[in-house]
Specification:
The structure holds two protein chains of two kinds. Helices cover 75% and strands 1% of the residues of chain A. By secondary structure, chain A is mostly helical. Chain A has a domain at 2-212. Chain A has a two-stranded antiparallel ribbon with strand order 1-2. In chain A, α1 packs parallel to α6 and α6 (126-152) packs antiparallel against α9 (177-203). The termini of chain A are far apart. By secondary structure, chain B is an alpha/beta fold. Chain B is globular, with a radius of gyration of 19 Å. The relative contact order of chain B is 0.17. In chain B, α7 (184-199) links the parallel β7 (172-176) and β8 (203-207). Chain B has eleven helices and ten strands. Chain B has a six-stranded mixed β-sheet, with helices on both faces. In chain B, α3 runs parallel beside α6. The chains are: A mainly alpha, B alpha/beta. The A-B interface holds A 150-151, 154-159, 161-162, 164-166, 168-177, 183, 287, 289-290, 292-299, 301-302 and B 50, 52, 71-73, 76-77, 82, 84, 88-94, 96-97, 100-102, 104, 106-111, 113-115, 118, 121-122, 125-126, 128-130, 132-133, 142-143, 145-146, 164, 168. Magnesium ion is lined by residues 42-43, 85, 176 of chain B.
């Protein structure tokens, strides 16, 4: 059971890490409020599922609400200087949590909100239910993985990668920055929203204290470790970090140490990030060259005499 | 009528007045040259035309339409292309991707087009790749097409910067010293290509320090000094003018060409 539980969380975090990959890995946008969009998705799911909406509709709602918030946040921030986006997203994460905590009518405030399980009433054993959750999360993860893989190997993905490196040059080449950046934040936020919806569905009770900035921090560690602008990197980074995150909790429960291994772990993650940024900024997996069909044509050209 | 009309452009950076009421016109289907000493404001003028810096005063008209203060992508859409004096390539992307990035009207460059018009943009990618390769052939960059632009040498970067401008099929090109840092033979080859394009109807505004190139290729020259146009006319006339020697070359005509 513990293994299945870990698999579910790995899948959810992999979604978050891939969503940050769209924003930061491909487009170069530092979103430091990832948890806010995760939270928005979780609450959107919780509220609509409580109204009796089916799972898929609630998940769509989670994506839409989080995506719309992504657009809202992007609009003021993207017209200002680059670093304002970091400040705006960071504060947005805090504001949303405080707002949900304060507004009891909305979703229970500090008392939290219970969420109906997607698999309730089917008479499943706990074990089968856990498997069902694993399948649900990983099926969606596979879909998102494929979707992003396709999206980033298009002319659209090329523009995003261009913006990441030199947005003035891309503008001079005729591409409007604001719409691309806003779209990247919307897509990233919508995926984070789906992750939030899956999270709420799985743990069946959410409260504002689950959505601390620590979540954002973990997602960043995952992406930077795995390798920005590489979908496998984002996925495997999430698996590794979540593995250690889990492992340290087990160690804490079963072995008496003079320190708290779970907290020490975060210090180590922090050091790991500094080390990676200094010595291996591309992480475990490097970015792959783009594939749009144009490169095939060029190879033909080059090999013909 | 002039295709590009710049009127009374003023621009200051802090206390430094870089452009002091620049007025110039570029005719359709001509190569207009812009010369002047280092720091006289030529690059600033081009960036202002392209919307990269906002002018304090003055107006820019392109094909009769006012484009003053439009963001660069709108200026591009109006039919202009720009190549930077110091290349601004996407170093992590390949030479090919840099080229295709510049292309106009890409079906797959928008979010929904990328997702839903896959067949169409893939066909377009093939066509754009062929077009890119024929330009890269001229620039001698074919063998590097699939290498990251970050691996290019300084001169090759400059070539790719011009290649991108050519790739965008503009009505008019603003080029900031296209032959600087490029070997002389290739430099002339590039200008010959520009001249062919001019004969097909393209217009050019080109900053250039090399007098012999201006003499051979420009239809009209503007001389700029301290943020103002001080002289203009056919290349021969301008170069014969004593003012030209006083402000630009600082020597006699013969000395200028022997260096
Ligand atoms: N962004 C800026 N901020 C402050 N000063 C600037 C800026 N851009 C240009 N300048 C100043 O404006 C003046 C003109 O610069 P500009 O680049 O237009 O010269 P130029 O005529 O292109 O010279 P060169 O032939 O050397 O390229 C210089 O003195 C420069 O320092
Ligand atoms: Mg200059």
């Amino acid at each position: 059971m513990y293994l299945l539980d870990t698999l579910v969380f790995m899948g959810i975090f992999a979604l978050l890490s891939m969503s940050l990959n769209v924003e930061y890995g491909y487009t170069g946008l530092g979103n430091f409020g990832k948890v806010a969009f995760f939270m928005a998705g979780a609450y959107a799911y919780a509220v609509t599922a409580a109204l009796g909406w089916p799972v898929y509709l609630s998940l769509v709602m989670a994506a839409l609400i989080a995506g719309a918030l992504g657009a809202v946040v992007s609009l003021p921030a993207l017209r200002l200087r680059e670093d304002y986006l970091a400040i705006v997203t960071l504060s947005f994460g805090e504001i949303l949590r405080i707002f949900v905590k304060a507004e009891q009518w909305l979703a229970g405030g500090v008392w939290g909100k219970t969420v109906p399980s997607a698999f309730a009433g089917l008479g499943l054993s706990p074990k089968t239910m856990a498997w069902a959750n694993v399948l649900l999360v990983w099926a969606i993860l596979a879909g998102v993985f494929l979707f992003l893989h396709l999206l980033m190997n298009t002319p659209y993905g090329r523009v995003l990668r261009g913006i990441r490196e030199d947005d003035v040059a891309v503008q001079v080449l005729g591409k409007s920055l604001v719409s691309y950046k806003a779209q990247a934040l919307m897509v990233g936020s919508a995926i984070a929203g789906v992750a939030g919806g899956l999270f709420a569905q799985y743990i069946r009770f959410i409260d504002p204290y689950m959505f601390l900035p620590l979540v954002t921090f973990l997602v960043w560690v995952m992406l930077i470790l795995g390798g920005p602008a590489n979908h496998w990197g984002a996925l495997i980074g999430a698996l590794i970090v979540e593995f250690f995150n889990r492992g340290s909790r087990i160690v804490k429960d079963y072995i008496a140490l003079p320190f708290d291994p779970h907290n020490v772990q975060f210090v180590l993650f922090g050091l790991l990030i500094i080390f990676l940024l200094l010595y291996r900024p591309y992480g475990l997996f490097r970015e792959k060259p783009m594939r749009t069909g144009a490169e095939v044509e060029v190879s033909k050209w080059q090999s013909s005499p | 009528m002039a295709i590009l009309a710049v009127e009374n452009i003023c621009k200051s950076f802090g206390g430094l007045q870089v452009l002091k009421g620049v007025t110039l016109e570029a005719e359709e289907g001509q190569i207009t040259g812009l010369v002047g000493p280092n720091g006289s404001g030529k690059t600033t003028l081009l960036s202002t035309i392209f919307g990269l810096t906002k002018p304090d005063e003055g107006s820019v008209k392109f094909r009769g339409q006012t484009i003053t203060g439009l963001p660069p992508h709108r200026v591009y859409e109006a039919g202009l292309a720009f190549s930077f004096q110091l290349p601004r390539l996407i170093t992590q992307l390949t030479v090919l991707d840099n080229m295709i990035l510049a292309a106009r009207d890409q079906v797959g460059a928008g979010f929904s087009g990328a997702l839903f018009l896959r067949r169409r943009w893939r066909r377009q990618e093939t066509e754009l790749a062929q077009k890119a390769m024929s330009i890269l052939e001229l620039l001698g960059l074919v063998h590097l097409a699939l290498h990251p632009a970050g691996e290019l040498s300084g001169g090759q970067r400059k070539l790719l910067e011009i290649g991108r401008a050519l790739m965008s099929d503009p009505v008019m090109m603003l080029l900031d010293e296209p032959a600087a840092g490029v070997n002389p033979v290739l430099g002339r080859k590039i200008y010959q290509k520009l001249r062919t394009l001019r004969d097909q109807g393209l217009s050019f505004l080109i900053i250039e320090h090399k007098l012999e190139i201006l003499l051979d290729f420009a239809d009209r020259i503007y001389l700029m000094d301290f943020g103002q146009i001080v002289l203009s006319g056919a290349p021969k006339e301008v170069i014969e003018n004593p003012v030209f020697y006083a402000t630009y070359v600082g020597e006699t005509k013969d000395a200028a060409f022997s260096s």
